[in-house]
Structure to design on (430 residues):
């Protein structure tokens, strides 16, 4: 069976077993097993909740692997000059990094901590790209000491720091530029507009190129990231047109931002669509880099919760409260992100409701408009498409313990990040 056929088999398995057009929201291969109970990576969701507790982040390991391979294949069908980098901020977990390194991806990191995790996860230093709009001297020193392949320079101040710290070591860099392109996405996750904390304004790019040369840095290319959860592909073509006007350099990094499906009504472009759009405007002979993160892990992961309270307010609404919330998924409160929600043992929509978290905030609402099948205390509730930025942005608000990360494959489940303990909450106290 070819890789493409294997990918399609996983998709078909999900499409034939999940109701209401939900297959593209849940991990590849998800199905309703015996008695209509949800299975992720061949593992029964209720058994996962029983064994590992809730809240919990659950990932279908094969889903991540297949999406990474599909992304690389989409570029390989069109060019030999490309590199796919895992945007690790989406899910900074050493087990995920190890998986993507084994598949053949490079990695981008945006802090000293992410660099530490990438190295622990097995990425070769030469295939790591160090990002950040305000890298500290310590982080730059760590990147230089590790032998990071490229540092993405974000400002003139950073050029001066690198000139001093690299001490003539001919560090390879990319120049991050601000192309003045605004994709149709939430304002908080736009990065390419003129009024941005990221990158060097286009008018200053010629001077920045000269300054890199004077500092003894080896300028290998340009970098521009325009935002996240991008559906409209024409912005990538416009970005390529802007970048090639600056002048030809070996590398052209057009960022990531590939969109995913959070609800059954979302239908994002495919990996092939994104590759085609990015490469269409790129000149021949230039190596094109992209940095998918969300699109590799977002739909691979679900969050499991236990329903604690079902509260009907006559004439208003029904609240279904779970044992997690904004501490394990801040995106609905931060971006107004929307999700689906289902009961792991009873897919259906008999009861319109609002999925509320357990934190001391009225705004702690995970899904504002949901419909569940007769929800009751003790039910296991699942929210799909939480594989990106849930674990990454989790907190200890209300002194809750951050959830575990569970990888599932072929019916076997393993803990790759354990649940925090109460002792962990005081570990740094003095």
């Amino acid at each position: 069976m070819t890789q493409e056929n294997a990918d399609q088999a996983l998709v078909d398995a999900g499409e034939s077993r999940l109701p209401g057009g939900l297959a593209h929201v849940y991990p590849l291969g998800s199905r309703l097993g015996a008695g209509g109970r949800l299975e992720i990576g061949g593992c029964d969701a209720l058994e996962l909740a029983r064994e590992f507790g809730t809240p919990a982040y659950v990932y279908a390991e094969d889903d991540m692997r297949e999406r990474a391979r599909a992304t690389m294949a989409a570029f390989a069908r069109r060019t030999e000059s490309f590199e796919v980098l895992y945007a690790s901020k989406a899910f900074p977990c050493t087990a995920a990094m190890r998986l993507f390194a084994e598949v053949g991806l490079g990695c981008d990191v945006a802090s000293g901590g992410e660099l530490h995790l990438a190295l622990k996860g097995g990425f070769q230093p030469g295939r790591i790209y160090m990002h950040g709009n305000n890298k500290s001297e310590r982080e730059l020193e760590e990147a230089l000491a590790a032998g990071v392949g490229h540092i993405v320079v974000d400002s003139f101040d950073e050029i001066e720091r690198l000139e001093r710290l690299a001490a003539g070591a001919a560090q390879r860099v990319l120049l991050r530029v601000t192309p003045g392109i605004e994709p149709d996405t939430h304002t908080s996750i736009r990065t390419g507009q003129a009024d941005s904390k990221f990158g060097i304004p286009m008018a200053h790019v010629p001077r920045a190129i000269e300054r890199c040369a004077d500092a003894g840095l080896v300028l290998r290319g340009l970098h521009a990231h325009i935002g996240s959860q991008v559906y409209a592909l024409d912005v990538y073509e416009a970005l390529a047109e802007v970048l090639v006007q600056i002048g030809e350099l070996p590398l052209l990094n057009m960022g990531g931002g590939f969109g995913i499906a959070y609800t059954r009504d979302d239908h994002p472009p495919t990996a092939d669509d994104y590759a085609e759009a990015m490469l269409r405007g790129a000149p021949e002979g230039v190596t094109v880099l992209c940095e998918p993160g969300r699109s590799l892990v977002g739909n691979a992961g679900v969050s499991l919760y236990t329903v604690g309270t079902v509260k009907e307010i006559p004439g208003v609404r029904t609240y279904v409260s779970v044992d997690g919330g904004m501490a394990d998924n801040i995106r609905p409160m931060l971006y107004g992100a929307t999700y689906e929600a289902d009961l792991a043992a009873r897919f259906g929509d008999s009861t319109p409701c609002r999925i509320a978290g357990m934190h001391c905030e009225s705004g702690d609402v995970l899904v504002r408009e949901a419909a569940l099948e007769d929800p009751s205390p003790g039910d296991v509730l699942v929210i799909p498409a939480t594989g990106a930025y849930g674990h990454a942005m989790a907190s200890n608000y209300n002194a809750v313990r951050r959830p575990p990360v569970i990888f599932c494959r072929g019916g076997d489940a393993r803990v790759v990040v354990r649940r925090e303990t109460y002792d962990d909450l005081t570990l740094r106290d003095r």
User: Anything to note?
Assistant: Residues 1-16, 183-192 have pLDDT under 50 and may be disordered. The first helix runs from residue 3 to 15.
